[in-house]
Amino acid sequence: xxxxxxxxxxxxxxxxxxxxxxxxxxxxxxxxxxxxxxxxxxxxxxxxxxxxxxxxxxxxxxxxxxxxxxxxxxxxxxxxxxxxxxxxxxxxxxxxxxxxxxxxxxxxxxxxxxxxxxxxxxxxxxxxxxxxxxxxxxxxxxxxxxxxxxxxxxxxxxxxxxxxxxxxxxxxxxxxxxxxxxxxxxxxxxxxxxxxxxxxxxxxxxxxxxxxxxxxxxxxxxxxxxxxxxxxxxxxx
Length: 237
Prior knowledge:
Layout: H1 6-9, H2 14-19, H3 24-29, E1 67-68, E2 81-82, H4 83-98, E3 105-110, H5 119-129, E4 134-135, H6 137-140, H7 147-156, E5 158-165, H8 167-174, H9 178-186, E6 192-196, H10 201-207, H11 209-212, E7 217-218, H12 224-235
Parallel strand pairs: 3-4, 3-5, 5-6, 6-7
Antiparallel strand pairs: 1-2
């Protein structure tokens, strides 16, 4: 019987054992002509859905603060709307669409006299820079012209009205000044948007419950520049 070659050549591999005169036949008999190679188990990192979060899927906002996209806002828009804003602005947009063929100013800006060189002018300038045609008493009422008559003309020739609600306007409303007459005309139909600035809706409702019932925009949630952008999108063709 042939001798085993393990003492000289070793049996460290399957081929060495198979070549051994003594062990080769036994290796082939029991199917050990080769040893399976070892491959470490593959590892795949766990995947996470892009919409998931560690907080159990809760969104960062809720209720009327959640983000919504109105149909008139372009896909490239940089401003976000709340659901409450979309609900409030949709009837105004529908009114604008009915007037698209008419040659009108885009916006009638109603404001308190005390704001003419402050917040009212700031909003006017931001709107004009976005291509919005604004009726603004500071530039549209000639010196010596009857103010009420010019206001009537401005209202009749504007698609929508915006009311800049400030502490100064609230004081004017308590005294039933010219601003109150402007509001009476603007409140007819769905073409009025309150812009609350430096005060609150609660304070507005105390003075004018009817105007305070209209949801609009405010500069606490929206910087004045974003308010102007939303108005520009609202009246765009």
